[in-house]
Amino acid sequence: MRYEIKQDGKFKYIEEGQGEPLMLLHGLFGALSNFMPLIEHFKQTYLVIVPILPLLELDLLHTSVGGLQKFVQKFIEFRNYNNIHLLGNSLGGHVALIHILKSPDRIKTLILTGSSGLFENGMGDTYPKRGDRDYIRKKTELTFYDPSMATEELVNEVFEITNNRLKVIKIIALAKSAIRNNLGEELNEIKQPTCLIWGNNDTITPPFVGKEFNRLIPNSELHFVDKCGHAPMMEVPEEFNRILSVFLAKQKTPAATV
Length: 258
Prior knowledge:
Helices cover about 40% and strands about 15% of the residues. The longest helix is centred in the last third of the chain and has 16 residues, at about 165-180. It has about 260 residues and is of the alpha/beta class. It has a domain at about 15-120 and about 180-250: Alpha/Beta hydrolase fold, catalytic domain (Rossmann fold). An eight-stranded mixed sheet has the order 1-2-4-3-5-6-7-8, with helices on both faces. It has helices spanning about 35-40, 65-80, 90-100, 135-140, 150-160, 165-180, 205-215, 230-235, 235-250; strands at about 5-10, 10-15, 20-25, 45-50, 85-90, 105-115, 195-200, 220-225.
């Protein structure tokens, strides 16, 4: 499935369907393919929006989770979206958290899956090795419960990014920024209904991270999915979409009775 990437001003994004906005923020090595089953399912009832985050296009000074949040805020204001269901995976979840803490007004609900912001293993103890495809394959496989999810296409995408010296520097800058930017003390300020969908076999943001988000975010619910790693919307799309559908249905404003 190919989606038209639209451009409005300096922003590139996908917009499919109609209804309340459901905005998806991808992670550090995220691609549109990560969200395809989700887009296909929810574009029937929502306006599904995927901004293309400038992970590796910002200048080095602004290559941080804070810099990405400012980009998302400008995008939302430029497009004048309101009542947004904001969903983030991995680093995208971290950006969503910073955004809802700084600019909650236009956000209706928050959905986090494998989000950083409290704790993450990231690339582990080592940084991406340029030119080492086996290393990249192994690290990509660790994202999933089922290593066969790390297809040649996915490995090639990551390999291409990590084989560029400047891109690697920016990846490291983003990863370090995420680790430094711990939101634990601020999460109790989030007032929006929040849905946490976590893989029981996530080794990057393990299950205890989901439990801690659930403890710290007041109006939150936590769902664990078995045989699933760091990207539930990719690995178990049907279960992910089912959980999210039930959550979103609860947020619908009841029709006024005459």
